[in-house]
């Protein structure tokens, strides 16, 4: 303690005992280590103020010091074990604020909040979520759709070939702006696919029922099939049963990316059509000896 | 265990200590007139004595001061526990947390 105790307390050399006491209290309130745990600067300040007050707060010692009989260092003493040594370790739980002195604090609550709510550096903006219904053939063959956003803006959405119901299309940077210079969020568009009048989608393949006439089924012939990519002539073999399935290779979902094209599965349904007198007349005299169409039901 | 007689705190008045105990500022294990204190309770008594008499904090302000102090030390105990828990993590995880804190 080489420093002048009067300067440390901030009082004049002729200060009264009451002034010295008040000055010490002011400093002690500000710097007491139990009120500033972990603050080395405050602890040093408090030590100095305590030492100065130890000297000047005692009329006899103050007189000796003023007369030069002792120097300031004679007054320095190590501070007693304070509250903080107990309060910062296990025994302090006895006076815990949140539990009335019984055991540990609600740790999860405390630090859960600190970690979750802590402001961060650059961060990506929030994503926006949209839902878009597209036609069956748009999803199969791909299309571009323009959607109108709630704020009046528009987004051009490229629907790639082979899009399936439930697919999420991501438009990078079309969400909210980023935080603190981070990248903007994305627009995420969930695709809903409207059902088609006669196509059904099974993964990469498309299924459809194609009606054929009795004549086409019995005699065979070329049948025109409307595939998603245009009309195709398909050969129906003579004697084709109703329910026969044929496959048109590569006529399903078109090839895209790494995916090969799917197939078009055609199920032929024989349709008799309106009653025909000549056909009735013929069938009345026609037999199929030995043929029972319900053989398999026996 | 420490009794009132063995406290040896200069200027501590038994009647005043009784009001602190009744206000639950100080916890004690014994019964009225035969108090027994742990070391942590003695430190607590010294703290309150310092606050009341050295720092001249008035009695009406004491519940606020003690409540704030208890909250401060609870935070520091939890921060120390967190620190201990972090010290057990692999170096890469600790580094990642420090970097995140410095962001």
TrEMBL record, chain B:
Gene3D superfamilies: 1.10.1660.10
Short name of one Pfam family: MerR_2
Protein's name in the database: Chaperone modulatory protein CbpM
Source organism (scientific name): Acidocella aminolytica 101 = DSM 11237
């Amino acid at each position: 303690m080489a420093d002048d105790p009067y300067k440390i307390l901030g009082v004049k050399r002729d200060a009264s005992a009451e002034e010295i006491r008040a000055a010490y209290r002011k400093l002690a309130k500000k710097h007491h280590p139990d009120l500033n745990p972990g603050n080395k600067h405050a602890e040093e300040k408090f030590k100095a103020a305590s030492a100065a007050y130890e000297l000047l707060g005692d009329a006899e010692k103050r007189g000796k010091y003023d007369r030069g009989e002792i120097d300031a260092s004679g007054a320095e003493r190590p501070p007693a074990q304070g509250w903080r040594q107990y309060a910062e370790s296990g025994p302090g739980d006895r006076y815990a604020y949140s539990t009335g002195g019984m055991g540990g604090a609600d740790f999860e609550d405390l630090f859960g909040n600190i970690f979750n709510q802590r402001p961060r550096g650059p961060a990506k903006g929030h994503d926006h979520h949209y839902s878009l219904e597209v036609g069956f053939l748009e999803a199969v063959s791909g299309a571009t759709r323009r959607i109108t956003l709630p704020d009046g803006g528009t987004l051009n959405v490229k629907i790639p070939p082979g899009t399936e119901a439930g697919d999420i299309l991501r438009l990078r940077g079309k969400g909210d702006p980023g935080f603190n210079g981070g990248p903007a969020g994305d627009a995420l568009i969930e695709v809903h696919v409207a059902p088609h009048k006669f196509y059904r989608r099974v993964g990469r393949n498309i299924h459809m029922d194609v009606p054929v006439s009795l004549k086409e089924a019995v005699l065979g012939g070329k049948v025109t099939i409307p595939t998603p990519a245009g009309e195709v002539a398909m050969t129906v073999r003579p004697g084709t049963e109703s329910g026969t399935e044929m496959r048109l290779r590569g006529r399903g979902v078109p090839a895209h990316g790494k995916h090969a094209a799917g197939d078009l599965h055609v199920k032929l349904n024989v349709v008799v059509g309106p009653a025909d007198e000549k056909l009735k007349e013929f069938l009345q005299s026609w037999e199929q000896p030995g043929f029972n169409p319900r053989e398999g039901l026996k | 265990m420490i009794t009132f007689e063995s406290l040896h705190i200069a200027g501590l008045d038994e009647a005043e200590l009784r009001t602190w105990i009744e206000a639950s500022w100080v916890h004690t294990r014994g019964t009225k007139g035969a108090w027994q204190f742990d070391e942590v309770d003695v430190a607590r008594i010294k703290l309150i004595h310092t606050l009341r008499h050295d720092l001249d904090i008035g009695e009406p302000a004491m519940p606020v001061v003690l409540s704030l102090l208890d909250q401060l030390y609870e935070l520091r105990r939890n921060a120390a526990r967190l620190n201990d828990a972090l010290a057990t993590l692999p170096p890469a995880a600790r580094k990642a947390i420090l970097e995140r804190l410095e962001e």
